[in-house]
Amino acid sequence: MRTSQPKTIYLSEYRVPDFLVDHVDLRFELFEDGARVHSTLSIRRNPEATGPAEQLELNGDSLTLESVHLDGRELQAGQFEDRGELLVVPSVPDAFELQVVTWIEPQNNTRLEGLYKSSGMFCTQCEAEGFRCITFFPDRPDVMARYRTRIEADKASYPILLSNGNDVERGDLEGGRHFVTWEDPFPKPSYLFALVAGDLVEKKDRFTTLFGRDIDLRIYVEPRNATKTGHAMDSLKRAMRWDEEVYGREYDLDIFMIVAVDDFNMGAMENKGLNIFNSSCVLASPESETDMAFQRIEAIVAHEYFHNWSGNRVTCRDWFQLSLKEGFTVFRDSRFSADMGSPTVKRIEDATLLRTAQFAEDAGPMAHPVRPASYMEISNFYTLTIYEKGAEVVRMIHTLLGPELFRKGSDLYFERHDGQAVTTDDFVKAMEDASGRDLGQFRLWYEQAGTPVLAVEDDYDEAGQVYRLTVRQSIPDTPGQTDKKPQHIPFALGLLDQDGNDIPLTLSGESEQGDTTRVLELTDEEHVFEFTGIDSRPVPSLLRDFSAPVRVNYSWSRDQLMFLMSHDSDGFNRWDAGQRLAVDVIRELSGHADTSVDDRLIEASRTLLNDRDADQALVAKMLQLPSEAYLIELSDGADVQIIHHARERVLKALATALRDDLLACYRRQQPAEHYQVTPEDVASRSLRNMALAWLLHIGDEQARDLALEQFHSATNMTDQSGALRALVNSPFGDERSRALDAFYQQWHQDPQVVEQWFSIQAGSPVSGDLAAVRRLLEHEAFDWKNPNKIRCVVGAFAGQNLAHFHEQDGSGYQFLADTIRRLDDSNPQIAARLCAPLTRWRKFAHVYSEGMRKALESVREKDGLSRDVYEIVHKSLAD
């Protein structure tokens, strides 16, 4: 395991590889006690290398080296050096063949990197640097080769043998063993290599491209999950058709495969032609998965498929360019999900994640640009900044260029760089060349960390009928970056007249009347915009559709926010106005026991509940109060308990005042006869379960009876788990216990549903205290080796159950620190990701921050700390 002192790697020190690999021939002999890997590499010196390198250096990790042959000649001691993390051959010719045999132990690989076993199945995870855990190799994304892979295993135990590309040969071997050979015709980096061997059920389908080619589609799952592949298969076909229609991208192999794996550190992996998925991200049935799971699966299946072009055919030159593939592909999957469902709701969900979690990342000790300048451990940079902010950067290019020129730019990018490993600059350059736009200043989005803040002021000249808007931009300091330059920001806005109608916008100096939504381009520290022909003071609708990942500071009054909630034609800003109003009310109550909830918030919520003509999907979103995590993010010196109790007071006041309206809403949203994941049906179930949860929160006995009836009669998991969650977060302790027991007994044989059961309890602000969480860790269904179980208990407690995690005695912090220390020895990636709730200790009031800091220090003191955790802890504690 890589536990040596971390070394900082810098983008500025990038150099092309000294050697290139043209072809990789792999033979895997799989056994119960390990695997022998025969690797034959066709290597040549890189003509673009800056200086001749005499010695060949190949990366390795946790490998037992058995032999090395150079051009068929076995090398003896002294002719090579095995340094553990490097295999060094001191003198090699300009072109040669290197054969390396290694022994590995997948059954003991708890890190889940490289080749490992999960539920008796062999599988791989090679991104970012997992291939070096399989064999010695120049394990970097700019070394691209064609692969031929032969897998040998016991036929009875492992009848299915899979790898990248097309199946070209198969047969039986002595001793009940067999083999399959796969050949991938496209060059790829080692991180895209994949292998699976197991006793799996194969689900098959076909897809005919718009160009007339038939593609063989296969999903492989364990037998118990054979009935849960239909949604993923349908999602795949929708994604394939969408990518053809929107981007002109046809799938390039004859076969596309997905495998579901229970033990997986990530959500899924886009290995060329053989995607490996966390089971929770591919398996679904209405009875066992929620609406949210169905939508998440569709998005992830699409994301991994879209990577075939934005990530595989065109890949990243180095790991600093990670957002080249991830940001672009998240943008693509986000647009796909918007087209498949409600665009406004999708935009709200994306913005909520950004404003709650990514903005927090931007303001924390691990803040980094979309294209980082340095890192210690690349696994720590699979972050929201790389993915979500990276997607927003691409989205802003789309906004600035428009759909037609953006498509022209993406076509040029794929055509120009097919089969290459490139950079974010190459992507932006293709957009510039296709559109004729200069995006030089825009590149700062890739280079500067932090969330820009837009301070907006306005005034109205009644005599001249001129509305003046002043916008000032600034970017806070982040670790290693100060005095930042102004960025190029698309700032969409509209103005509403006194009747709530959009006003056509004409800027001073323009002769023709403009559109009612204008995208202003901010490039300086300060801009003043004058709109003419405005006959009364308007209400501004700023940053429409969340046109840039920025904070907007403007002093809306509560009456203006109410007005925007009712009249704004931009669905996102209607929702945002409601969030701002609720935040203002909750802040007013913080620490003031004698202050009552503003009636305007209650009446606005009542109007929404009873508006049957409004978009019910939007209504469901607008009725959700801002989360405690978002309220903390908006605070300086956050006092978690005060924030929690203020939000609770507002929720209870709303539920009490709207009790009859909530009951009417619940009865009105009757379950559909047949389960469908349409925006309308999802909204109906969301409203129904929200009404139930609010009523149980105030201990309404009629709602308790409705919840019990729904729990026992539900025909889909959304309604059953919705009732269970409402009961768990209610004061009805006996009913809570009986429902939890009944749910577990019903679903104890389904690991994905048990994960929901864990998460509901660990995330409960009512019953999920630390003692309850510790009991969950002792439960028969909990498994320390399974990342999903850890996330559903420890992750849910620390990330969602904020009132209990932030107990002022610091017990929650020390519990998390102890968990991190334990996991660091077995799965450093998961341990590192669990550090996040502690890293922003400076954000909180002293009574919390001291305990968080001490917990981090206890992690830092662990002997043999992994590089993954070392980087996060040391950066978090740095002065």
Give a structural overview.
With 879 residues, this protein is of the alpha+beta class. The chain contains 28 helices and 31 strands. It has an eight-stranded mixed sheet, with no helix packed on it. A five-stranded mixed sheet has the order 17-18-19-21-20, covered by helices on one side. A four-stranded antiparallel sheet has the order 10-11-16-13, with no helix packed on it. A hairpin with a 2-residue loop joins strand 10 and strand 11 (121-125). Helix 10 (571-589) packs across helix 14. The longest helix has 20 residues, at 343-362. It is globular, with a radius of gyration of 28 Å. The model has no long low-confidence stretch (mean pLDDT 97).
Arithmetic mean pLDDT: 97
In what order do the strands lie side by side in the largest sheet? 6-5-9-3-2-12-15-14
Proportion of beta-strand residues:
15-25%
Low-confidence regions? none
Distance between the termini: 29 Å
Overall 3D form: globular
Percent of residues in helices comes to: 25-40%
What is the radius of gyration?
A: 28 Å
Helical stretch count? 28
- Major sheet, described briefly? 8 strands, mixed
Question: Structural class given helices, strands, pairing?
Answer: alpha+beta
Structural key phrases:
single chain; 879 residues; alpha+beta; eight-stranded mixed beta sheet; five-stranded mixed beta sheet; 28 helices; 31 strands; globular
